Amino acid sequence: MKNYVVLLFTLFVFAQIPAILFSQEKEQNTLELKVMSFNIWVGGGKSVEETTNVIKQTSADIVGIQEASKKGNNIAEKIAKEMGWYSYAANSSRTIISRYPIAKKSPNGKGCKIQINGNLFVWIFNLHLIHCPYEPYQLNGIPYCNAPLLDTAEEAVQSAWKSRGNDVEETIADIKEAQKDDCPIFLTGDFNEPSCLDWTEKAAKMGICKIPVAWPAAKAFMEKAGMKDSYRTKYPDEVTHKGHTWTPLPAKRDVFDRIDFVFFHGSKVELLNSQIVGEKSELTDIGFDNYPSDHRAVLGTFLLK
Q: Quick one: DSSP state of residue 257?
């Protein structure tokens, strides 16, 4: 009887091996990736050390950095080197840093392909769209960079697209080319423009924004390139979760908005979480005592399949 029980137990153990191996294989073929959009405020804002600390403490894997340089020195590249990371500088403002090696850049130079492991790649694009004119100020009667004040949504959309449309279209062209690789794609950026998902009729009625505006940059990435806004995918209610990234350092008269984004695309990527990073306050999910920037950052956590 004892031998019979031992035999049954042995057969049971061997029967579990295929399931265990399958489970291990599945785990090995998936990977969690954290992607951050971070305007570091003219090469590190209040402190380069604290800027580096934000990146380290959030456990970000890839960071699309805007305002990367100060006095001709690319601080983002120096941070990457200090951390033993890789970097790709598209220009003095836009730099991507990554704990994983960079394989190649996109045709228009808006982003790069990153090798996560032997057969797993992602594309990352990073934007810093022009800050002037800034239509939310113009709609709210706040003088800024000698731009004319605006009265209607149509005027705001026309102004925004005239200012940023070419940059958006070039990036969309790069994204569409990258989509041929059938791998996860991410877009980070300080758009200097709100989202069409935020300035809605509902938000206007609650006094969160001046009027409903179908802001064209985010709209174009969603409609023309199939990109998804990670924060608004996680938190679809624009009233209960405003997600404002501009600004932790407001002027006496300001317009609070969500102008920093992490977008994603692809059948091989799943959104797990989206968090606002900034000063310690009820407005952030991850807070720092000495937050260095005038923009809050956005951190997306994804599962790569």
A: B
What angle separates helix 216-225 from helix 153-178, to the nearest 10 degrees? 40
Q: Where are the domains of the chain?
A: 30-304
What is the tens place of the pLDDT at every residue in 99-145?
999 999 999 999 999 999 999 999 999 999 999 999 999 999 999 99
User: If you search the block for the tokens 């956005």, which residue do you land on?
Assistant: 298
Of 3.30.70.100, 3.90.25.10, 3.40.50.2300, 3.60.10.10, the CATH number of 30-304 is 3.60.10.10
Please tell me the distance from the alpha carbon of residue 214 to that of residue 155, in angstroms, as a whole number.
11
| Residue 227 identity | M
- Residues 228 and 265: beta-carbon distance below 8 Å: yes
Which DSSP string do the residues of 16-68 spell out, in sequence order? Answer: HHHHHHHHHHHHHT-EEEEEEEEE-HHHHTT-HHHHHHHHHHTT-SEEEEES-
Q: What is the CA radius of gyration of the chain?
A: 22
Give the separation between CA 171 and CA 162, rounded to whole angstroms: 16
SS3 14: helix
Enter the pTM of the model. 0.90
Phi/psi class of residue 91: alpha, beta or left (left: φ > 0; alpha: ψ in -120 to 50)?
A: beta
